[in-house]
Every structure is written in C-alpha cells, then in structure tokens.
Design goal:
alpha+beta; five-stranded antiparallel sheet; 5 helices; 25% strand; rod-shaped; signal; transmembrane; membrane; cell wall
Length: 230
C-alpha cells in the first residue's frame, strides 16, 4: 500500500498550529514568571513605637525571597534631609519585617527606597508619614497637694493685719503739751505751791483776807452795839 502524498496546504496548516501553540506556551510562561517576580507592591512601611522609642518597620512579602536593599530617608520639603539607615531583607509569603530605630517626630515624612536586583528600583508610594502623637509624652509637673497657694496666702493676710502693731498716735496725741507755766499765771494755791511750796503773793493775799475779816468783824460789832443802844 503506497503512502498518501502530503500536500503543501496540509504542511502549512500544521506549521501554523505548532506556531500558535508555541506562542501560547511562551505567553503563559512569561505571565507566570512575572507573577512570581519581585515587585514594589510587596513592600510596606509603618512608623510605630517601641516603648518610648520610635521605630520604622518595612515588611517584605515577596514569596520568591529575592534579596532587596531597603533605604530610609527623612524628608524635608520634598528633599532628603538625612539617611536614617539601610538594610537587606529577603521576603517570604508570610512576610519578613526589618526595623529601623528612629526617634521620629509627629507628622514627619520619610522616603523608603527598595532595590531588588534588576526587578525593583523605586520608592514605596506614598511616602511614609508618622503619627501625630509622639511616642514619649512630655513630663508635666505634678500638682501640689494643697488646693492652691493663693488661698493660704490670702487667709494669712488677716492674721498678719491683726498681729501688726497699731498705728502710731497722731502728732496731737503723742506730743506732750508744752510747758506753759512760765507764760500764763496759774490759779493761786495750785501750780506755784506745787512747784515751789510757797507763793510770792501769799503774804499780800493773807493780809487782805485778815483785813476783810477785821472789817467784817468790826461791822458786825458796831451793828450789834448800835442795836443794843436802841
């Protein structure tokens, strides 16, 4: 039995089918390879607190475990202010986290750059912004046990006013009266007698008194005599 001749049309059709199959296989392999390749979406960053200290963590969930160099920069007005640090991470499906010690300030901005071979060389978008509350709270002075210092001061004011010496007497009260014994005569028998024990006018006054007594007695005597004569 002789072989059937193969026509050119059949050969061309077969080649076309094989070409389509090869292209499909290459496409599937390419898509599969890209699916397992490292990419920037597998990296994430976060600013957290470790007690009173601030830290920045970067997590890599690349299942292929491609070594990636992670660099953290502090930003200021869109420019790198300083380099915080640089570490190498090999990710896994469960995720591998690396930590950068950084005493970050509230609402600060950091740029995280990832370099993984020829597959990744870019920043994590968007930039990392720290929380608005710092890790370590500012120390505030403890309130005093007493309610307030002012009331106690006010309360002590009346006591101080009570214990303060009385106001000095006025000039009219404190100044002793001037000695006027030499300027105005004192009544007889008072200041002069008290000061010297005798008065220069005493004999004269005594003489006048005796004369008045004698005149009075004489008048009485003559009156009584005249009444007897009658």
């Amino acid at each position: 039995m002789s072989a059937l001749p193969i026509s050119r049309r059949t050969v061309a059709r077969s080649a076309r089918v094989l070409g389509l199959a090869s292209a499909s296989a290459a496409l599937v392999l390419g898509v599969g390879g890209n699916a397992f390749a490292c990419n920037i979406n597998e990296f994430s960053a976060e600013a957290k607190c470790d007690g009173d200290n601030g830290v920045i963590t970067v997590t890599d969930v690349d299942p292929t475990g491609v070594p990636a160099t992670v660099t953290v920069y502090l930003q200021n007005n869109g420019a790198d202010l300083k380099k915080v640090g640089e570490q190498v991470v090999e990710g896994s499906r469960e995720g591998v986290t690396i930590t950068f010690a950084e005493d970050w300030k509230p609402d600060a901005e950091y740029r995280i750059h990832v370099k993984a071979g020829n597959q990744v060389d870019e920043d994590i978008k968007p930039n990392l912004t720290t929380p608005s509350t710092a890790c370590k709270k500012e120390d505030t002075p403890a309130p005093s046990d007493s309610p307030s210092a002012t009331p106690s001061d006010d309360a002590s004011t009346p006591a101080e006013e009570e214990s303060s010496p009385a106001p000095s007497p006025s000039e009219g009260e404190s100044t002793p009266p001037a000695d006027t014994s030499s300027n105005a005569p004192s009544p007889a028998g008072e200041s002069n007698l008290a000061e010297t024990g005798a008065d220069s006018n005493t004999p004269l006054i005594a003489g006048i008194a005796v004369a008045l007594v004698a005149i009075g007695g004489g008048a009485v005597f003559f009156g009584l005599r005249k009444r007897g004569t009658r």
